Amino acid sequence: MDNAQPDEAADPATVLIVEDDASLNAALAATLKAAGFRPVTARTAAEGLRWFAHYAPDLVLLDLGLPDRDGLSVIAEIRGRDPAAGGRTPIVVLSARNAEAMKVQALDLGADDYVGKPFGVEELLARLRAGLRHGVQARGSAPVVKTGDLVADLGARRVTKAGEALKLSPKEYDLLVELALNLGRTVSHKDLLRAVWGSESADIQYLRVYVGQLRAKLGEALLVSDPGVGYRLEELK
Ligand code: CA
Predict the structure, then answer these.
(1) pTM of this prediction?
(2) For a tag site, which of 15, 53, 81, 87 has the least CB within 10 Å?
(3) How sure is the predictor about 7, in pLDDT bands with cuts at 50, 70 and 90?
(4) How far is the CA of 117 from the centre of ligand 1 (A)?
(5) Which residues surround ligand 1, an ion (CB under 5 A)?
(6) Burial call 100-110: b when 16+ CB within 10 Å, e when fewer
(7) Which helix (H) or strand (E) element contains residue 152?
(8) pLDDT of residue 5
(9) Residue span of the structural domain in which 100 resides
(10) How many domains does the chain have?
């Protein structure tokens, strides 16, 4: 089954919601349906993994506090699968557990993003859209972009600099993907905000912060600011 389409007018993307709170589960399903997704719901980890295998969802929205198993182990189980069996399916974690350590654990296990409860609908939808873009990149024939000593394998979601793996946050990675897909060309602030935050009216200050962080990791020569216009990943030998 292949529901993931970058074009939102195409088939709806299937989102598996794994959340034991019945009213929240129902509210999420209604919200996603209204936003044009096809929700599939599960109330336990076991049910979630069963529907995961059955529906091959385009994205998993996963609560960490589940009655039968820790949600973290669900992330590990999905990421342990072969890519052809959905091992790279984007996972957005949804949890009241806001502890920094839990977020880090979820992201280290391969979750794509983290939304803390309570959350705003717009924020949630923006993160789902960003997560779905990851999925399309992971499934498609995403390119390997090389410039200078940087290698960004967008299919494998692996970035190295001078042969060393770079640890990027999900937002830093999203930014790099947009810039890498436009190597040598300036990408406007608006296009970056839309691509990474799901809305071009997102605060440009976020963009500055994340570009600053990404530049510190990539190096000044690679991530170039085009003042008043946008940013560019420089094409270097
Ligand atoms: Ca829960």
Answers:
(1) 0.58
(2) 53
(3) very low
(4) 10
(5) 20, 63, 65
(6) eebbebbbebb
(7) strand 150-153
(8) 40
(9) 14-138
(10) 2
